Prior knowledge:
The complex is a heterodimer of chains A (234) and B (497).
Chain A (H helix, E strand, L loop, with lengths): L1 H9 L15 E2 L4 H6 L4 E2 L2 E6 L11 H6 L5 E5 L4 E2 L1 H7 L6 E4 L4 H13 L3 E7 L5 H13 L3 E6 L9 H4 L6 E8 L2 E9 L5 E6 L8 H9 L12
Parallel strand pairs in A: 3-8, 3-9, 4-6, 4-7, 7-8
Antiparallel strand pairs in A: 1-2, 9-10, 10-11
Helix pairs in contact in A: 5-6
Chain B lengths: L2 E5 L3 H12 L4 H10 L21 E5 L4 E5 L1 H5 L8 H7 L4 E4 L2 H15 L6 E5 L2 E5 L4 H4 L2 H14 L5 E5 L2 H9 L9 H9 L10 H9 L5 H6 L2 H7 L2 H11 L15 E11 L2 H22 L1 E12 L5 E11 L2 H12 L8 E8 L3 E2 L6 H4 L4 H15 L4 E2 L34 E8 L5 E10 L9 E8 L5 E6 L5 E7 L1
Parallel strand pairs in B: 2-4
Antiparallel strand pairs in B: 1-6, 1-7, 2-3, 5-6, 8-11, 9-10, 9-11, 9-12, 14-18, 15-16, 16-17, 17-18
Helix pairs in contact in B: 14-15
Amino acid sequence: MNKSLSMLENHPHIWRAREQSQQEERFSLGFDQLDEALNGGISTSGVIRIRTLTGIGELSLFKHVISKQRTHKMIAFVNPPGDIQAPWLATFGIDVKQVLIVKPSTEKESLWATEQCLKSTACHCVILWSNGVNTKESRRLQVAATHNDALCLLFTRPNRNSMHNSAALQTLPISLDLCLNYRQHALEVSVLKQRHGWPKDSIAIHNDWTPNNRAIKWAVEHNKVKRHVLHSVS
Amino acid sequence: MLWAYLYFHQITLDTHEKASLSVGNNSRYDTKNEARHKRTGESANGQHQPGKTQTPAVIVYCEKTNHIVQRNNGALQQGIEIGHGLAQAGALCPQVCIIPFSEEDERLTLVQLAHRLYPFVSDIVIDTHNTLAIRLDNLVHYYGGHKELWSTITHELNLSKVSYHFATAWSIEAARILALNGVDNYECDRDNIKHRLSQCSLSLTALDKKTKEALTRVGIRHVHQLLAMPVHELGRRFDNNTISYLTALRGETFPHVTLFRPAEHFEHFTLLPFDVENTQHLTPFMEKLLGYLAHYLRARNLQTSTLCFQIDFREHPSTQLEIKSALPQSTVDSWLSLLTLRIENEVLPEPAVSITLRCDNFETIEGSNGDFFSNRFNEVAQKQLIGRLNAKLGEECTFQPKVSDTHQFETMSNAEISSSISASTFTSDIVPTFLFDTPKPLTQSTKVCFGPVRLHSEWWHETPRKRDYFIAQTLYGVRMLIFKDEDNQWWAQGLFS
């Protein structure tokens, strides 16, 4: 009994909250609140799962990590939900020559391609869209990513309408698990699970990832015609 | 023993063509090129005829002998032959470009070539300003065969873009005769070599003029006649030099030659293809030299903190440009940024004719500067990855985005390669992350947050389109690219992530 307890005590995979967070390098996301909740940012390698709808600024959230870090290596997009536009990549700050887009026909192939990209040491970030990653597969990706100092962003559908779906609910042996929602003009990030840290709910982020009409509105409001011009009709 | 003898019959011409190619097929250089070079003939005949796609005639002229010593295909088409005088060449082709022949420049180029070959072959002898000898028999063992060894050497020579004649024989002297004869055949069988050698004319041997004349007078015109003579007979009539040459030709003595040893410091010389007037036009040539330096440093695991460029002029004394860096560096990019800053304020006193890059102080890259490994950019890994993905998933599943020169969303980014693909990507903040294959009817209620942007397709298209694009947001916060067509129908076309 005593022996088994001490074995458990000394097991290297059990992390205790009282232990000081390790002095490992982290990538800041550029949002103060979120970085604070994540102990300074996301870890530099490993798998990050993001449950989100497509098109709510989920890639822009990771802009700093994708386009500013380790730029000498490639970025792979595996199974993207649409045709990725090259001018968008350029606007995002990515060198188009450093991008590889992979469109496999099956889920299995996309997992295989992701693992190959992670293991190749040519990519620093592999972005995968997949809905059916199970525990074993995510473990494989996590190991491949950490061993080769690469990052894997896994985008999945949110489980809002699929509470009964066990695959979507289960926790995975990965570095970080996030959930994104759009509520009241802001992006809400929930940290569901993170290594060496506590979960945190509803961190509101104000991030403008598309152009807006503010400049036009401002111009219209501040440049109202004060007096009648000579040729004015009304 | 087996020696290969390489005869670079037009090394000045090759370096000139390589240098003019390296700056690209840039027309602005071409026009300068023409304007700068010495022209012969009257200007009335010397007008350039547009529409002629021939290669421009280039010749190398030796002032000492008043002979054309090298000429390219363009000159050959005009009828210029080696051995012609300058006036004859000028009469045949008034627009001919003339490079002055310099033995010293050829020797420098040859030494650079020897540096390039040295990692592959150990015993190199620089014979004259345009000939090299390489000992092969001691290397065959390491390469596992004559064929492998020779293909390694020729591959390296082809990469350095020089044309040459070569031959192999049991001694340098014998190989020399064969190479000058233009044998161009790799031969390691003794009898075959002997057969070929015996057919060669005596004029190609390195015997002095007097000896040759004496031999011709008695009817000896070919090598086989000479080799058939008994040595003691010759010994009575000719001096020691002739005898030792003949024994060397037979391969009976061990050669006493100075083997080439690479210099301990880096030095690379480039003859500019045209006179460069300002420093901006000098930069591409300097970048090329930096490339050689980076290669040199990388192979030896070194880096450096000082470089020295020497710029030579026709009359003015040479300028030394020293560039120092606070941190020892090895890559082209890091040095190039410093170079452009340094060279900005420089004014050349007169057009430059050649540049030399010198580097004496090296530092080894130590384990402590770990960025050497973390920034290791592995092109091989990239190619391997793409190859592996293509092999399993098929070629059409893996691609790199290409940009075409248009603002139409549908054709902006395509995988197919067409002529309109521009080299640089443009940025535009209204381009969506993902584009649907075909527009879908807009069925959700949305709020417009940006727009309108009106795009007309080009008038020469069969179905001209006029669309007003907006960025709209749904209840769930999804931002889409939507548009209203001419019939006031709303469509969704893309997503912003």
